[in-house]
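thought: fold this chain, then report.
action: predict
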Amino acid sequence: MNEPCGPVAVMSHSPERTIELGRRAGALLRGGETVSLIGELGSGKTRFAQGVAQGLGVKDIVVSPTFLIHRTYHGRIALHHFDFYRLTSEMDLESVGFFDFQAENPPSVVVVEWADKFPEALDEPILQVRFHLGPQETDRSVQFSPCGLAPGLWEALAGEVQTP
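observation:
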């Protein structure tokens, strides 16, 4: 599918701004999307996931599922938060039910930290969010890329995350 525009990059200068970017994205998600989070340790993946949860209306405190691999939260749409950091093979994905959550009906939003470990396992539509550490301790470059997102959704997301 051709995307209506290319990747969008923005700067975040604080953890709060990274959460806000996630909240803005989460508020627009419709269900059925996979949010692929890629970046170094401490680059903002969990903060962004916390924001997505806020945008979906989740009231619970969202924490990294590093040792549990998966957590589910409930808002206006169910959120399945995965962390692939400790997984070693796609067989691990099967054992934690990852593929079942992607195929859930009604559709949920699946957020995956360390998604670059098994990119072929992710179902479209995908919102890829790549984090790069910046020159200052709290600076992050955050790049958003669509893969199979509906054009109207991608245009809205791109516009929303670029708004100061």
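thought: worth noting. The chain has one domain: 8-162.
final: tokens above.
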